[in-house]
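Task card 7
Instruction: Convert sequence to structure tokens.
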Amino acid sequence: MQIHRNFESLSRIKNAVVTTGTFDGVHIGHKVIIDRLNFLANSIQGESVLITFHPHPRKVLYPDTAGKDLKLINSQKEKIHLLEKTGLDHLVILNFTREFAETTSQEFVEEILLGKLGAKIIIVGFNHHFGHNREGDYSYLYELTKTHDFRVEEIPEQDLENETISSTITRKALTEGRVQRANAYLDHFFIISGDLIKGSQKCRELGFSTLKLVVEEVEKIVPKDGVYAVGVESEGRRLRGMLNIKTKDEEAKPDIQVHVFDYYSEFVLENKNATVTFHKRMRDELNIDDSKKLKDQLEIDKAEIEELIY
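Output:
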């Protein structure tokens, strides 16, 4: 997958099949769109192109309302990593600004999708809107096909047990601690990538040395406080462990402590970048002041997680 930050570095693409959107989470619905994108590109000996935006449009357009507290399922690095696995030929990451937001749907289609990319087929998700004031949609694109040389296709909404899958419903599941449900929406494990630094001294004294996970972006969503069964992947290693999330107050960043079950590897991982995969939420965060009771609870947590198969 080739990554482009602008169109200047992007040479003319052969028979481009294009889609656009934020693709936060790269969930099941997104994957259906991308699978169709790749299939159609192959069918016309073309190349698949996904255009996405950074920062998230809501952060730019509604910084004091809808975008103010918006947390994202993926950091930009994580999203790129997930999209690399889909077989895309090209990923275009456009800097979303207020100036760019003034681009009309007609300008976006004629100047960018057709003009710069030479799109032969445009794929849109269910109820997708684009352009200034969200004036563009599938119906608008279909009308343009009558006067321009391209095809358009709309992908139906995707359901899981009668729930419409979206980034919004996935974020809600994560904030409620329902990571297994979120994983079902995503069709992959929810991840947090970041650096691992020296962890809690208190946990170390109890025999449960930890590493603190430093989240890469402030907009990155962190699941509800509690204890989770996790995997830790770094530099070719994959380890099992348990993770605790604790938020002191609404203004503070969540404190994320990871205890890996391989004692030696924990020291090797210190000051390394890692990707943590979330498998199951084990329990709520407990306020235990007594050291012995806390150690006993941690022993129980570890034993229960070690019995899990993942």
